[in-house]
Amino acid sequence: MRGELLKQRIPALVLIGVYALLANARTASANPFAPGDPVDVPMLLPVLAGVLFGPLNGLLVGFFGTMLSATTPSGDLFDVLSILPHAIMGWLAGWLAGRVPTPIPMLAIYAGLFLNSVAYWLAGELRWREATQTQYLLARAGG
């Protein structure tokens, strides 16, 4: 029983490590929609974990991957504020997988982007005026 549980969580453990590594390299990928705003490639990992390995693994990768990323030298307040949104996003992708056609669960990343924006706004790090500007919205849509 215990060995089976560990076996089910190995993909999550690997993806948590990959998340932290990618988060530290994120400045290497420029966002074509918003110059100076990097594409958040690690956000895809909780979604992939949820779709491929189930909602709990998506939640674990989102929560612990983002938490680990927040504690690294490249981590910042936005990483801390993104912990819960990324966990919810990973869980949602896993929950949707198997209930709806295959590509739709991948759209859970937009739920994560929306929840990130709400978290930033609630923490006072994003003003409503900024959040409704076209450049901000295009940056969020571009990842």
Explain briefly what this protein structure is:
The protein is mostly helical.
Task: Describe what this molecule looks like in 3D.
This protein is an all-alpha fold. It has 8 helices and no strands.
Low-confidence parts: none
Amino-to-carboxy terminus distance: 39 Å
- Tally of separate helices: 8
Write the element-wise H/E pattern from the N-terminal end onward. HHHHHHHH
Q: Could you describe the largest sheet, including whether it forms a barrel?
A: none
By secondary-structure content and strand pairing, the structural class works out as: mainly alpha
Helical proportion, percent range = 55-70%
Cα radius of gyration in angstroms: 15 Å
* Mean pLDDT, all residues: 82
Strand content: under 5%
Number of E-state strands? 0
Shape: globular
What are the salient characteristics of this protein?
single chain, 143 residues, mainly alpha
Layout of strands and helices, then pairs:
Layout: H1 2-24, H2 44-53, H3 55-70, H4 77-81, H5 83-96, H6 108-122, H7 128-131, H8 134-141
Helix pairs in contact: 1-2, 1-3, 2-3, 2-5, 3-5, 5-6
